[in-house]
């Protein structure tokens, strides 16, 4: 492949079915699951076989193709009505990442104008969504890397890599590009409790790509900054509102506060499909609450005191004022605010 350190694809359309690299089994087992129905796709998103904002949007788009094939075979006259409940089930699978409903809206436009068998046209749209995402990541990689400055280490949180997207990654796209250009010498990765996306997925991707990675417990990040070990924090996003507020994996907000205190710069990298201009601020973003068991247990082994309860929001919101650079494929915005977001999203691309 022509792009730096780019060899991982977690979402594959093969022989008329969707294959997903099962992210729950990584890094120990690399296994692609074959999905043939929309119900399987809904479960795969809800249960985190696939995760990451752009990746769940792309997966949902392929889920619509599977749904259309089944509904059209059942009833070639009424499939457009019947498929609405499938789209609703996909949309409800996870609430925070807006890429899911963004991709479904694109698929619904194709459904609305379809005449005859819709499968080929829907598949072409899903594949376009997938390819556009990879292209956006490559563009963002270049834009973000261009402002990194002299060679330093960076800190990332969760997994915003090839696994979380169509390929290449958002935050990890900038990191791949920065490493290839000699601007990043090492990546520090938060382990990302409770689901361990950093330890299991980001570390796996970076090791596979030959990029030096050091893991740390989430609570060690502020001390890392205090020691002057990182120049940038680089993260992805699940939803960005019209004023530039950013929802991302729980713990991101704390990192942004610590970064500002220590003079470390904070970069958010996300495609424009993650921007939700219908919401005026991050306070309106629905935050997914996940099972207490994810915090209380590890690998199904109880680690907490029996009887303790857990609070487990999957995401938090970082206010725009803590974001130094917001990178989308449309361009890089310094210190995002409502006016700059409007300008960024209004330009016809
Ligand atoms: O719960 P997850 O693993 O789906 O959360 C993913 C994140 O928060 C990522 O950082 C975000 O989606 C950006 S992915 C390019």
What are the salient characteristics of this protein?
single chain; 349 residues; alpha/beta; Four Helix Bundle (Hemerythrin (Met), subunit A); Rossmann fold; seven-stranded mixed beta sheet; four-stranded mixed beta sheet; 11 helices; 40% helix; 18% strand; binds 5-S-methyl-1-O-phosphono-5-thio-D-ribulose
Architecture overview:
Helix content is 40%, strand content 18%. The protein has 349 residues and is α/β, with parallel strands linked by helices. It has two domains: 11-135, Four Helix Bundle (Hemerythrin (Met), subunit A) (Up-down Bundle); 140-344, Translation initiation factor eif-2b, domain 2 (Rossmann fold). The two termini are 26 Å apart. The model has no long low-confidence stretch (mean pLDDT 96). Bound molecules: 5-S-methyl-1-O-phosphono-5-thio-D-ribulose. 5-S-methyl-1-O-phosphono-5-thio-D-ribulose is lined by residues 51-54, 97, 158, 160, 164-165, 170, 197, 236-238, 248-249, 314.
